[in-house]
Amino acid sequence: MTVKTILARKGTAVVTIDPAATVAAAVKLLGERGIGAVVVTGAEGRTIGIISERDIVKALAATGAAVMETPVSEIMTRKVVTCGQQDTIGELMQQMTEGKFRHVPVVEQDRLVGIVSIGDVVKSRLEQMEQESDALRDYIRTA
């Protein structure tokens, strides 16, 4: 199963934010959309960072409430791990586990085409395991 399969099911919409937007604006966006991360895009919609709930909590712990007026670009994660649509769920799970992150932007030819969360990956993997289990049960019944 590939990332493309996940995007086909969940869609390709990605919530983005400008690097000059405040952390308060990012918090509002996260809350309104019920999501855990927002992709930070620069010129021509290029991915230049990602800001997650974890980034915000770390900044609050270090700086206090004043961080809310700070530009997103100052606290975002700059080294964004991305994937392509042809990457497998297994590869993605390994990257997320080793990197300890929960959101991966999907990029094709330097263009943002989707985002995958750990929830999406787990859901897909569980569906795959269920299909395999059903196939084995059918095989045993007919053997």
TrEMBL record:
- Does the record bear Membrane in its keywords? no
Keywords, in A-Z order: CBS domain
* Every CBS domain range: 8-67, 76-132
Q: Give the InterPro entries listed for this entry.
A: CBS_dom (IPR000644), CBS_dom_sf (IPR046342), CBSX3_CBS_dom (IPR044725), Diverse_CBS-Domain (IPR051257)
| Superkingdom classification of source | Bacteria
Report any Pfam family annotated for this entry.
Answer: CBS
Q: What is this protein called?
A: Inosine-5-monophosphate dehydrogenase
Q: Which organism is it from?
A: Rhodoplanes roseus
Where is the organism placed in the taxonomic lineage, from the top? Bacteria, Pseudomonadati, Pseudomonadota, Alphaproteobacteria, Hyphomicrobiales
